[in-house]
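User: Structure please.
Assistant: Input sequence and predicted structure:
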Amino acid sequence: MTRVVGILFLSLFGAACARSVLSPPEPRVIDTGWVLHELEEDGLLVSTPRDFEAAGGSGCFEGHTQDTLPHGPGWRSFCLGVHPLGQPIPLFIDGVDPPDCQADCIRYDDVRTTRMTLGRQDVIVQTAFVSGGFAGRPRSPEMLIQLPIPRGLALMRAQYGDREDASVLLGIAQTISTRSR
């Protein structure tokens, strides 16, 4: 099984609960039951477990165990796309985004950034608790993964319910590749 290699996050608030949700676990082992998806517009390939379905537009997927509530254990979703070279890289930043926000603001807290290796690929992984926004999202964990590709970065923005869900999402991230032309 491929192991996550790299520096793991420092302890988050000293609370075991926060550590267990935001610290990157080992990626889940990919088995033959996974499904390959091609994102035509971005030229990316990604494999997901069979319980993931396309959701919310191009490059977005959602997977969950039966009767799972959004943002609860067993729930996970992600969007994947290409971020072009030379453009500012979107990052999680502690506080409100944007800083001058007046209404429907998104708040990021306990932001952690680390470099690690998924498979043979060096990546940057950010985790944070995210809340607010137009939908009034409850405080829940989110992950932003940056994978270098020839024409920029593949960015995977993922939301999940617990550490096991994060493990599945890291397993998915290690399958991302570009379509050969």
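Confidence is low (pLDDT under 50) at residues 1-20.
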